[in-house]
Structure formats: C-alpha cells, structure tokens
C-alpha cells in the first residue's frame, strides 16, 4: 500500500500519540455478547452503551462550525442510547473479540451526505478522533478498522482502533473519551493517558420497531 500524503500525516500523529501500545493476539478471540447474553451478529444493529452509569450511548455530532454531523461522540445523558451501529467483521460473520471489523452507523447521518462508516481522522485539535465517511471492506484505508476487546470490568468491553493489514509501525490503541474546549461534547478518540476518560462499553440490540431507535431507513 502506498500511503498518500494525508496518510503520512496520520502516521506522524499515530507515533506522537502511541504512548500506550498493545498488540492483538494471534488468537481468533471469543464471541462478543450483548447485555442479554446473546452473541452479536454481523450486520445487525446494536447500541454501544456505557458500561458505567451516568453516561449515554455512542452517537454522531457536529464539531465547531460544521453543518454536518460527522464526529463520533458519547451522549452525556444516561437516558440517551445514541445511534445504533452494525459490526462488519473481516472475512467472517463472527463478531469475536480481537477480530478486525468495520463499524457503521445503521441510520443515515442527519444533515450529512457522508457514509456512516467509522474511521480515524484528525479533525479536532491535536487529537485523533473517530469520525464518519470511512469505507468498509478489505483494500480500503487501514484507518477504518477496529476491534472489540474484553475490558477489565466484568462483562464490559473496550473498543480499539486496530489497522488492517497489520503493520509493524502502527499499533492498536484504545478508544477513549476526550474533551475539546468547553463545548461539552464527549468525543471518541485514540487514548492519550492523562487527558482522556476511559471508555468501557456494553452492547444492546436495537429494536428497529420501537424504543427510541427511530430508524430513518
Ligand atoms: C470466534 O470464536 C469462536 C469461539 O472461540 C471460534 O470457534 C471461531 O472460530 C471464531 N471465529 C473466527 C472467525 O475466528
Ligand atoms: C467558527 O467560526 C468562527 C467565525 O468564523 C471562527 O472564529 C471560529 O474559529 C470557528 N470555529 C472553529 C472551531 O472552527
């Protein structure tokens, strides 16, 4: 893969922020389960809720003067489940821990022509954050790949950015929450200890026929 200029810039920031390296094991992991104990299914819709109380689910928002909602945030209210996502695992239908997968918002993004596929981007300050307009599938940018890992707390999971294909130089890194200025938004980005709040999550199957899902498909 020949990195474009933007990719080279991202390389730089990945080095600059890779203070907490970790490696995905060669194992194929184990099935990720939702809060009902059911295995997650590829292509189905789930809310990514906070594992700790007092915070909401993951959603999309605008940043600064943007007219389009395209950065991934955590809702600050526990009452908001956020927007459901689909997990699209690499070369398999198993949503296992430690398997590379694409993540895509199930809903059309309000006011935004972009795709709902997650990718790592440098949109906010010096931090690398998770945004939308990625492309799912093999052969696309390796900034579009994530994994789910078991967290230390019982039953909770962590989300990681984890490039595919694997490289020697870019390590998998936890996604955590950071803040920018006083806009009150809880942005999801690559962990930079000291400035970030840990993000531990659980998954709840989205009921497309009710609740506050409001699927706009
Ligand atoms: C997912 O995990 C299960 C149980 O450990 C295993 O049997 C299966 O092969 C794994 N799937 C993949 C694609 O690695
Ligand atoms: C938003 O626009 C105002 C006025 O043009 C500008 O001063 C400000 O820096 C912009 N904010 C961001 C985050 O770009």
Automatic annotation (TrEMBL):
It comes from the Eukaryota. SUPFAM superfamilies: STI-like. InterPro entries: KTI1, Kunitz_inhibitor_STI-like_sf, Prot_inh_Kunz-lg. Residues 1-26 form the signal peptide. GO terms for molecular function: endopeptidase inhibitor activity. Keywords: Signal. Pfam families: Kunitz_legume. PANTHER family: KUNITZ TRYPSIN INHIBITOR 2, KUNITZ TRYPSIN INHIBITOR 5. This is Uncharacterized protein.
